[in-house]
Fold:
Amino acid sequence: MIDTLRQALARLRAFFRKTPLDRDLDAEMASHLAFATEENLRRGLSPEEASRQALVRFGGVAQSVEQHREARGLPALDVLLQDLRYTFRTLRRDRGFAGAAVLILALGIGANIAVFSVVNTILLRPLPFRDPQGLVWMASDRGVGGLSAVTYTVAAYEEFLRHNRSFQDVTAFDPYFGDTDYKLTGRGEPQQVAGVAVAGNFFPILGVQPALGRLFTPEECQKGGRPAALLGHFFWQRQFAADPGIVGQAILLNNLPVTVVGVLPASFDFGAVFAPGLQIDVYVPAIMDLYRNTGNTLALVGRLKPGVAVAQAQAEVDVLMPQIRAAHKDWFDDYATAMTELKDHVSGKLRRSLVVLWCAVGLILLIVCVNLSNLLLARAAARSKEFALRSALGAARARIVRQLLTESLVLAGAGAVLGLALAFAVTWYLARQGSIALPLLSTVRVDAAALGWTLLIALAAAILFGLAPSLKISGGNLQDTLKDAGHGMSAGRKHDRMRAILVVSEVALACVLLVGAGLLLRSFLRVLDVDLGFRPTRAAAIKIDYNDGGKRERRGAVLQEILHRVSAIPGIQSAGIVDMLPLDRNRSGGLQAKGRIYGKGEDPGAAFEYVVTPGYLRAMGMQIREGRDFSWQDTPTSEPVVIVNQTAARCHWPGQDPLGRTALIDGRDARVVGVISDVRESGVEQGSGLEMYLPETQADPEGAELVVRARVPLEALAPSVMRTLRAYNPEQPAAEFRPIQSIVDRAVSPRRFFVLLVAIFAGLGLLLASLGIYGVISYAVTRQTQEIGIRMALGATTERVQLGVIGRTMRLVLAGIVVGSITSLVAAQSIAALLFKTEPTDSAAFAGTVLLLIAVALIAGYIPARRASRIDPMVALRGN
Amino acid sequence: MPEKKLDLLQGTLDLMVLQTLAAMGSLHGYGIARRIEQASGDAVLLNQGTIYASLVRLQQRGWIAAEWGTSDNNRKAKFYSITKRGRKQLAADAAYWQRLSGVMGRVLAMQHEGGER
Structure:
């Protein structure tokens, strides 16, 4: 054992000391021969005979040296190095081929690494918390409905925490991020910062330690405790230039001094997990006593006790919640809770899309491999004599296959390196796309797992595209190849067969990709076509700050003044104020028709609630179907009024005219004065829920967004709007002027992201397939130059020759299309769930794919066909 | 025609080299080769060059040591000598060969007696 190890080490040493060892051996052998010659001389042989005999007895110096080297060093590695040297030499000679192959591979492998990194980050990698598999997301109302539906009151939270046995602990945060937006003053111009209020045990439960300072103390989480805040890492770097001295200092948030107690680590990104596309700047303690009367405002995350499964927690809560509810007759909600592993809550919805994406990119790699196989086969045909010669000189078949596989590996390796660079660039770009609302996307990077994946796919690709051609070549009949004296012979039918099969499969794969992309694209167009219920173009929103002392009586005058001033800005068509924008945030409240007895299952539950000023509906481009908009004559003292959407009207006053009827809003009367068209409030692809709009003067808003509709380009308006707001209220923070379109874009961004990627892959697949077709046809034409020349000399017309070539192209492509279409029919069924208002058998997607493939094939076939028809019979016949 | 020379079985050359060095002390490559030929009565087919692969193998395993020196007739040569570990190995290998050849002898003898010709 020790001896074997010693020998292995000695061999390794010897591998790196070839020259001195060889010199040593040479000297030793020379002395050996000298001894032998001397002895022979002594035996009386002539000098010539003496040295001849010595050599004979020695038995071949070259073989002995070779034997010695094999015994001494690492022969396998020597062969590999030799193969590598040879490979680099041949590839350098054939730069065009090498460049094309590496580029194609880099695209294929790069796309695969990038997609793997995304899939790994969102689906495979555990969440960046301590023991993430023990974290559970709790959603009330079984997770169905707006934020108000899936959240909890403080009382429900505390009762659950007290009685449950499944969890070590449960924490809460306030998911109404907009409400807790803070104004940072006293440091340059006032600024809006995004904040979230979290329970005191939030960070300990997730296992997040501060990078600097400390977490909240229990005292800071109590009413009357000293105001404290934690800074997000990115915000700390941007706003405070990463100054560690900020810890312990006070900053002004909403004009109140708040002590910065710590800075969170860079690895903690609240937005990436809980609010995709949002960057949270500050964290403040959620003081439970202040949340007691705010209704359902807490999102819950629990940590299971060790050994407890999510299903057990679910079983417990199914029994526990009705018991708790029975003890609290005054609660509105029965908190039927759905428990999901936090990871599932964050990324479960994306699983299908990501798997499809992964498959698409896998198809690309397959197409790349087929293409490479094809290129290698074409090259092999040109090199067949080289290999025949080598094997005639004694190279074993395995040795030649090994040489060819080394070439494939070198190509794949170079492709992988370039692909990695590509993937690094792509992931870097993706991680900075705040506008794509995908969870964890900001943490995407090429990590160790991605590097491992790269190695795996590069190896697999090399074997896949290298093995078939090398077996094909080395298996050929020596004599035939050597005899096959020159160009122009229509030999090598089997090469042709194989290449034709490769092209057909390439076209079929591209067909599947194109159909998939076509279906997703159709769905995306349908999504863009959805009637949102408002018109996003030329409208923008900006968060505003005003001081009404919290009194409805004053709010009307303040808001009217702001709107009056803003409307006076040239280019503003209309303006209004709302607390929450559709597709952005939402909350719900109780809505019923007064006097109606609801049967079982008739009461649809809470309605989305928006508090608006007169003019808001017009500024957003919402449609008033019946009745009127609010006016400034709707005051705190006048009759309470409400506007509902069509869905709410249908639900609560079925078959009646809701106008003038009395609604019960959270138990209080209000007269319905208007009905508007449905607005997509929760998502572009989800139908509208029940909505109600209340005047700012009669209800309490949760924040304020000024919405303006412009006659001129929006960018031109931003400064003057901000100037006007500042002139009225110097403390108006610098806030983003958000085009409403950007809110819609954000809502459809995941779908846009997937469609874009799949479309890129389909385009790539089409390009590669067309290259494959072109390569095969072009090669066939080159080889048949003579044959075509003869036919032309015998009177074949240009058209006939061209048609012949194009006909052959079309036969290949049509075969590919038939195979591909059948496969696509199956594949399309599997992505049916991702489609929006599009059938998996959508004729446009299929017809488009077929037409596109035929068009591309025609072009790819026409170029060699034209070349064929230009062959000069005389030159072709004289050639060789 | 003289009797055909014996092909060397895999591994036997290494053992012969070890034994030669154990018996003769320090020797150079040519000396080892000649000794083996003489000891075997010129019955083995030995391309003398093959001995160098054997020598480097034994050296790498630490069973023999090598050193450049000068021969009796003042010629520079590399001299090999067996190490302590080499002797141990030799003892083990020799015992193995003896057992094997004994067994082979008995088996072959039996076949000769019982064979039906």
About this structure: Helices of chain B lie at 12-24, 29-39, 51-60, 84-114. The longest helix of chain B spans residues 84-114. Chain B has one domain: 12-114.
